[in-house]
Amino acid sequence: MDQVLILDYGSQYTQLIARRVRELGVYTEIAPGDAPLAPERLVGVKGIVMAGSPSSVYDDDAPVPDQSVYALGIPVLGICYGAQRMTFDHGGSVATLADREYGRRPVVVSAPDPLFDGVPASFLSWMSHGDSIERMAPGFTAIATTDNGIPAAIVHRSLPLRGVQFHPEVTHCEHGTRILSNFVLGICACRKSWTMERYVDDARAALRARVGSSPVLLLISGGVDSTVAAALLLATLGPERVHLLYIDTGLMRQDESVEVMRTLNALGAKHVRRADAGDDFLSALAGVSDPEEKRRIIGDMFITVQQREVERLGLGDDYFLAQGTLYTDLIESGKGVGKKAHVIKSHHNVRSPLVEEKRAAGRIVEPLDRLYKDEVRALGRVLGVDEAVVSRHPFPGPGLGVRVLGEVTREKCDTLRAADAIYISALRARGLYDGIWQAFAVLLPVRSVGVAGDVRRYGWTVALRAVASTDGMTADVYEFPMKDLLEISAMITNRVPAVGRVVYDVSSKPPATIEWE
Questions:
Q1: Which fold has domain 403-504?
Q2: Residues designated catalytic
Q3: Which DSSP letter does residue 399 get?
Q4: CA–CA dist 67, 71 (Å, integer)
Q5: pLDDT digits (tens, 9 = 90+) for 372-415
Q6: How distant, in Å, are the alpha carbons of 15, 60, 386, 482 from that of 393?
Q7: In the chain, where the domains are located
Q8: Which pTM does this prediction carry?
Q9: Secondary structure class of 112 (helix, strand, coil)
């Protein structure tokens, strides 16, 4: 099977490149960018992408590729750091920009090349780099520049080496998919042979080989990720060997537990246990405001409760712990391929010390850990999961623990639950829900003065968040009709007495994340 190999240097976008290539119907794998390229690793490889990095080529610990990559005769595309690395390794120079190129930037194609077939002579790219190519390496020429004259794309005159200093994999980049298609399907001549159905076959085979005859316990929240993971496990191992444990943390949305149990029963699961642990979580969070500390506490408490419940289930020690971890969880937690990734925010199911201990023991199964959210939805549809569940907006594992900013209390959770339920219900009633990637309310640690009738009062501030996205790695603010936004705000302040003010978050990702903590 034809494939594209992606060399990872710690970029937050590395897996996004893989996802874009998979969308083209071509199989991809990601390898540490500084690992040796052994012949067996290159079987079936028709193209190589050198991805981005938070590093500079001049850093002491900058990742350096196996230099044989340039002499294999396989087409190579360097993206951002990959292009700068390619330039530096061939005798060119890279310099730090006086003004970082970040965000949308015009690019002008200055010379014909198959990489830009069907792409307009001028388009808006997506930039994210502080260093830039200063002097071209011998044998290379620029085929596109930015509006300030900096090389945006380069090509070697005799070797199949190309580089771009923008990110065609990001949805904000105009014609990015066409550029990647030109490289993968045109320059590399890859055949389309990868589908979600094939992924299901491979994932099921890997699960059977990994767990053998052992039982599997899945910590399930009822959200899209864990539900699809449950469907995959049940379809692969059968309902007798799969145990589903739902932990009610007291940090769930309104009526969440009832809906979760209904969904799990619909999956045909035989072993479902609900643990009411709200008091445990809220007690552990008392007095804690730091978001990373809250995530650590929630992650540890999940495993603590899980261990307690496992003893009650009588599974013994010969079980695997399954999680609905996505690749976005891994890369934001600095757990991407290789050792160069930076931590954006910790995820309780990735960086908790207790999870790390189980991971080191080889007793964790994460069948979705190379998928993005939209791919998980596609997988759910292939597995026959109900559309109402598949299309549901994402909900973070720590729940309201990271949507109540500052200290988490039962009263604050109740206030946020009520406001969020009104918000989501209003979106559904207005036909807006399905057009939004993710929408939710956040309770800010701010009380502001207001008037209720003729009475002065201080009420909490609620921030509403709604974004448009395709994969969760980048997102734009959802542009509400102002009439709807005003009416939803009034509904919340009228029906939730503790809330005195509503604001709307208009930040994009990047630079913000979708969640506030």
A1: GMP Synthetase; Chain A, domain 3 (3.30.300)
A2: 80, 167, 169
A3: G
A4: 8
A5: 778 899 999 999 898 888 988 988 889 999 999 999 999 999 99
A6: 21, 42, 14, 22
A7: 3-187, 196-390, 403-504
A8: 0.70
A9: coil
